[in-house]
Design a protein that fits this description.
seven-stranded mixed beta sheet, binds pyridoxal-5'-phosphate, Aspartate Aminotransferase, domain 2, 2 domains, 391 residues, Aspartate Aminotransferase, domain 1, alpha/beta
Amino acid sequence: MTSNHIMNTYARLPISFKTGKGATLFTEDGTAYLDAVSGIAVCSLGHAHPAISDTICQQSKQLLHTSNLYNIDQQTQLADELCELSGMDEVFFTNSGAEANEAALKIARKVANQKGIQNHKVIVMNGSFHGRTLATLSATGNEKVHQDFTPLVDDYIRVNFDDIEAIQAHASNPNVVAILVEPIQGEGGVHVPSDNYLTECRRICDENDWLLMLDEVQTGIGRTGQWFAFQHENLLPDVMTLAKALGNGMPIGACLTAGKANAVLVPGNHGTTFGGNPLACAVALSVLKVIKAENYIEKVAQQGQAIRQQFQDKLANNPHVVNIRGKGYIMGIQLDSPCANLVAEGLAQNLLINVTRGDTIRLLPAFVMQAEQQAELIQKVVGLINKHTGQ
Ligand SMILES: Cc1ncc(COP(=O)(O)O)c(C=O)c1O
């Protein structure tokens, strides 16, 4: 079904889904599609997960919303759980990833104000994605996202991702207050940095009294085979943002702080009507419970590596495959030519995949994807790539 009344902000595929179960989506006539997109890294526990559906039913019968004028027990409990899992100290809940990043950027601004810095700067990465609000689109390292929305918020210094020397070069700049970086660039083409990249970012932040702010909106909540992608190294950020998989489809985001970023925002500085409501927080608590009960962190780490290895093996002789990269269940297969058409070709084979940056197939399977579905995914994606590249 299409409508002339939907604002034309998305080039949508000509399909809609009526129901879902696990890693499968169904159209109204019952046709099944294997979903390797998971609502762009949102539905990690798949569609219509029984525990999540039960939580939504139960909580909706008890209480949906009171506002942040009062304590919200589910919010308190969720903050405790997230801090225990991450080592962070404080949480502000939002409704989306962009809002979580806005909170992070406001913390950086307030710290700059407290330091008496007039023209403060946050170091951000080329190729990054942080959201579509004015501050977050300005922080984003993609000119297509900036286009038509100048003047941008002028708070950013841009450097190349995974280039520590480029960051170090700004160490003498007294206006810098923070680094904002994704542990793995998702929208930017699934770029995994060098092993010690975040540790080195941490070191530079410590040496210069900057905040290390990690955007884990796409990588957080188990996607990379750790609860949070920074846990592949041995460090703690000052700020971390989450959203996407935290609610498995229930809109919720979070901005977490530690150390010198704690207690920066005080009453009157920031707020939200819906953020952290009982329903969203109850669902997020349920998400964490299922991930723990099913040992998904270990499974995603192991199976993600096994899936990538199979792609490596099966595509080893295809000279048009530039690179196969990823961690856990975020995977990118870069080709040497544009391949956005593979999305439609996948759809014609009842497979949902995504292409970023024009030439990189991005796969974000649900943690619940069954072994035979994984085999189908690999076989179909390899077939699509070989056909596309004439192999
Ligand atoms: C790393 C990252 N940050 C922020 C966002 C924005 O999140 P939202 O669309 O929930 O505002 C996204 C969305 O793709 C993202 O991948």
